[in-house]
Amino acid sequence: MTTLTIDLADPEYRLNPWPKYEKLRERRVHYLPEATWDGHDLYVYACYDEVNEALRNKEVYSSHIQREGMLNVPMLVNRDAPEHTRLRKMANRAFNARLVRTLGDWVQDIVDELIADILAQPRVEFVEAFTTALPLRVVGGMLGVPLDRKAELRRWSQGVMDGFAVAAGMDPDLAPGYYEDVLEFSNYMDELASQRLGGPNRGDILGELVAQEETGEMTRDELVTMAWSFIAAGHETTMNLLGGGFKMLLEDDELAARLRERPEDTKEFIDEFLRLYSPTQWLLRRASRELRVGDVDIPAGGLIHVVIGSANRDENHFPDAARLDLDRHNKRDHLGFGAGPHFCPGAALSRLLAEHAFRSLYQVRHRFSLDPADPPRLRTRQGSFGYSYLPVLIDAKAAEPGA
User: Which of 254, 279, 307, 345 is deepest in the core (most CB within 10 A)?
Assistant: First the structure.
């Protein structure tokens, strides 16, 4: 039964999806014939319970969306068990919590350097100067990419993100040149890995991946596509969290004052922001077998539009869901990092970067203001939510609060 339509390419659905989400949550599932860019039927889950189930139940819902063509490569996001289990185990060894815990001082040094550079200018575009620069500096460094390649790394990273978006259902015509950028990045990572063969393990991500290749646990193709995954895991969520979170701090004096006085609440801010403005708004799954959800029959192989951004605003799970509430008791139920076997491998790193960044920004927030003559702009890529352009003014003489 068709109850409404969704145009995945509609700017309104990308930039202001919340009214549509409210309508979607009126039913457990919607059937939309020929709704994808290439004419496939689509089944839509927008309520928390159905979205959570689709993310967690690997027996019923498949992540292997692209089964042919150039995107049918061994990526974590496009594989099911047992192949996904093997790849995820290798990813966890390379990108493990122990390694992330050792990065604090290094990350803080990068945060301090970036903020000092920004404060020396009267005006900056914050996405370029900070929200993109920080995760790329960190993840690029962990992959062994030297700083003098940072401009290329940003282009490659965008290509990787576009490739993941296409794999998750985005029209490839909306990302011209992404495949060439992914190929160039792949060739570069292949060169870096070759240079490391036979040498000592430096203890970074690339070193761990090369060590697994040398023992025969991983192929070179898997190593390269794993690097794609780390770029995506360390970049996308962090970039959108930092930009949107900082804009919120600039607009909400009460919130900024609380966090400056109680920086230990930063973890609460991160989780509640990710719930309210999930950087990944939706992704796709395929039904592994015939399903009946509500009054809708979904065939085996049916394509399911899993709307994380809507689930995180479901009033049945998060009362008063459209309001940011740092004291919300179940905020950590959010699905901003996904759930189940495909829970974001970069979640620990994203939290680390955001916590160091926000704690440092609280102290200088009074020097910043949004540029009233040049409003921020949201990203227009399908499936993501965050700021692509955030110009801010800097007042070097601004007095600290209470001074």
Answer: 307
Question: Is 135:236 a contact under the CB 8 Å cutoff?
Answer: no
Is-contact 307 44, C-beta < 8 A? yes
Query: How many CB atoms neighbour CB 63 within 10 A?
Result: 24
| Contact in structure between 340 and 80 (CB atoms under 8 Å) | no
Tokens of 228: 């794609």
**Residues 220, 212 contacting (CB under 8 angstroms):** no
Cα gap 133→369, rounded to integer Å: 20
Comparing CA positions, the residue from 335, 358, 359 lying closest to residue 347 is 335
- Give the DSSP H or E segment for 106: helix 104-119
> Which strand (E) or helix (H) includes residue 370?
strand 368-370
State the maximum Cα–Cα separation within the chain, in Å, rounded to a whole number.
Answer: 65
pLDDT bin (cut points 50, 70, 90) of residue 119 is: very high
C-alpha–C-alpha distance, residues 165 and 99, integer Å: 28
Go through the chain and tell me how many residues it has. Answer: 403
- The string of pLDDT tens digits covering residues 170-213 is 677 877 888 898 889 889 989 999 999 988 888 788 888 899 89
Beta-sheet strands, E only, within 213-322: 283-287, 291-293, 296-298, 303-306
pTM of the model: 0.90
Residue 192 has a CB neighbour count (10 Å cut-off) of 18
- Written as six digits, the tokens of 125 are 């575009």
Dihedral (Cα; 344, 347, 349, 351), 10-degree rounding: 160
Q: Report yes or no: 20 and 6 within 8 Å, Cβ to Cβ.
A: yes
Q: Tokens at residue 350, please?
A: 């994203």
Residues 214, 230: Cα–Cα separation, whole Å = 20
For 352, the 3-state DSSP assignment is helix
Rg over alpha carbons for the chain, rounded to the nearest Å, is 21
3-state DSSP assignment of residue 372 = coil
